[in-house]
Amino acid sequence: MRSTSLSRVARAIGGEMVHADDSAVVRGAAVDSRRVRVGDLFFALRGRVDGANFAPQAIERGAVAAVADRPLDGPTIVVEDPLDALQRLARWSLARDHEDGAAPISVVGITGSVGKTTTKDGLAAILRMSGKIVSATEGNFNNEIGLPLTVLSAGGRTEVLVLEMGATHAGDIRYLCGIAPPNIGILTAIAPIHLESFGSLEGIATAKGELALALPDDGSFVYPIGVPEAATGPEKKLGCRIAFDREGAEGADLWASEVEDSEEGLRFTVHFGDSSAEVRCPVFGTHLVQPLLAALGGALALGIDLEAGARGLARLRRTGLRGEIHRLRDDIVVYDDSYNSSPAAISAVLRYGADQSHRQNRRFVAVLGGMFELGPAAREYHREAGRLASELDVDLLVCVGDEARWYAEAFPDETVLFDDAEAAAEGLGENLRAGDYVVVKGSRGVGLDRLTRKLRESLALV
Questions:
Q1: CA 212 to CA 222: how far, in whole Å?
Q2: Contact 427/418 with Cβ under 8 angstroms?
Q3: What one-character-per-residue DSSP string does 53-70 give?
């Protein structure tokens, strides 16, 4: 956010200043006292702990004031609900550019069941290569707390704000769009995730479709061919729609051909209308073509031509634990995609691992953690993945966690079961052989990143 006075902030969020210097300068916001920077406002949220208890540490680290639901000993802006105040400040900071005559920030909202982070990283890389000043979601800051923090962390010269928008319930996307109204929306995919909340794919599609419905009439929407209509807001009038598809299905405006995967990364030709360009991107896995197309679609909506978009993807560096390749001792290769999982994502990673292990004539080892929030069909989704692992000739299936045992029910070949990631981290090494190709995939809560970290330490090249 652009720097402003504490008194102006207090008015914007409807708060009352207590023991505070109204001329103090606010430069950002934080909800974790350990991450406070000089000039931040510290929002004392209530959760498992009361954030107000950490206000003294935040002030000591340089916060100009705390925002709390009661007066504190130090400088405080008292509000009824600190979380609501955080969101109001984010909304005000974006609207303020119009009020002050500054150039408005373009806001890109990205949602979808899978591929949000790759799309965000790809679009940010393209924009930066094209000379734009970009701020983008970091980590998993894509909810009602993380999104306003991302808005408020944007520098004063930001031209494009790229925001992931997550949803676990109907109305979540609409709510986030109310905090940071996007003028460009990107839908990456619809897949069975959070079925416990949404109940069905149609329910997921309707929830994700809130993004298209939130766009202004002159806004742009980028989406994949073949998703349920409810996800695309078909009745919504928009200035531009860009439909993409890896295979170039009928109706696609943007598509890929000649897809190749190599040790240097992905290569493919991208087409948009009569234009085409070669993409060389340092990421691994043909399943990533789809989110890369989504990123290119977002760039086109922002006025960047196809050739410049393709050049930008050459600079892509993905957020950690998503498709990282590690070469370990004894010629063991680990494809670490452990950040999160879903039926669609686990299928893509298994197919990628099968292709790579076959090409390189290696034994194929799949380390799979459970998939969470799949509702009543959870067991069958795991069994489907187990059957796919068998069809793809996985040589050793390693199941981590209670839900992961369901993979083994449909996998007839060699299986190893571990209760949790810690046990797997200690025991997996003795199950590996020289030259193995290992893929690692599971829901975030399983913690498979601890397993890959242990492997990298114990089997490090020397």
A1: 9
A2: yes
A3: GGHHHHHHTT-SEEEESS
Q: According to the CATH classification, is domain 4-81 in 3.40.1390.10?
A: yes
Three-state DSSP class for residue 262: strand
Predicted TM-score (pTM) of this structure:
0.83
Architecture of domain 324-458: Alpha-Beta Complex (3.90)
Q: What is the per-residue pLDDT across 281-294, written as a single tens digit (0 to 9) for each?
A: 988 888 899 999 99
Residue pLDDT, tens place only, 409-425: 999 999 999 999 999 98
Alpha helices in 302-445 (DSSP H): 306-313, 343-359, 378-391, 405-409, 421-427
pLDDT tens digits for range 357-374: 999 999 999 999 999 988
Give CA angle at 183 (276, 94), nearest 5°.
130
Domain topology for 105-313: UDP-N-acetylmuramoyl-L-alanine:D-glutamate ligase (3.40.1190)
Hey, is 23 helix, strand or coil?
coil
Backbone φ and ψ for 189, nearest 5 degrees, come out as -175, 160
Name the one residue in this structure whose structure tokens are 């909800």: 31
Distance CA 428, CA 391 (A): 23
Tokens encoding 110:
């990205």
